[in-house]
Automatic annotation (TrEMBL):
GO cellular component: plasma membrane
Short name of any one Pfam family annotated for the protein: DoxX
Cell membrane found in the keyword field: yes
Keyword check for Transmembrane: yes
Domain of life, source organism: Archaea
Record protein name field: DoxX family protein
Membrane-topology annotation of the record: Multi-pass membrane protein
Subcellular location: Cell membrane
Entry keyword set: Cell membrane, Membrane, Transmembrane, Transmembrane helix
Species of provenance: Haloarcula mannanilytica
Transmembrane segments: 20-38, 101-121, 133-152
Length: 174
């Protein structure tokens, strides 16, 4: 890429995704993001088991958010399910990312979690950009760049006969 002082936008910008440093970085980013969620989930499991009561209580407090009454109703009527799904979901999402298996699928659920956290926290004292949004963007990066293919099990899973017979399964991998 050349740079022209007169017009810095004259040339196209290219990002080499096939390089070794990019692969290392994406694998590192995936593992760190996975550890973040795995640690959050395992900590909840150790402390509360499958009875994470803060989850439903948190949803019942979301009366003034952009989601309206939906989280409040979820907290009131699906509390028993949320108590188990939050710690299990975080743990499984984290494990999937750390080992690089079903990364896109795990990241879709990560985006769901982070979107709820981002909207649910909704104080936005520092503007719209906060740690919840940054987590959401990390999970979107995992989806878009198929980071499970970089030193992850998804690279191995893609070569199986099952995935070769059903190529649409590749969309879950990465």
């Amino acid at each position: 890429m050349s740079y022209q002082a007169a017009n810095p936008l004259a040339d196209e910008f290219e990002l080499e995704l096939g390089g070794a440093w990019t692969a290392y970085w994406l694998a590192f980013l995936r593992v760190v993001t996975g550890w973040w969620f795995f640690h959050a989930g395992v900590t909840k499991l150790i402390e509360d088991g499958l009875a994470y009561t803060y989850g439903p209580a948190y949803l019942r407090q979301m009366t003034g958010t952009a989601l309206g009454p939906i989280p409040v109703l979820m907290g009131e009527h699906l509390g028993w399910l949320i108590q188990a799904l939050v710690p299990l979901g975080e743990t499984l999402i984290g494990l999937g990312l750390m080992v690089g298996a079903l990364v896109r699928l795990a990241s879709v659920f990560g985006v769901f979690f982070m979107a709820l956290f981002w909207i649910g926290n909704a104080e936005f004292g520092h503007g719209l950009v906060n740690s919840d949004l940054m987590g959401l963007l990390l999970f979107m990066t995992m989806i878009v760049l198929a980071t499970g293919r970089y030193y992850g099990l998804d690279a191995i899973i893609e070569k199986t006969k099952l995935v070769k017979r059903h190529p649409k399964l590749r969309y879950l991998l990465g």
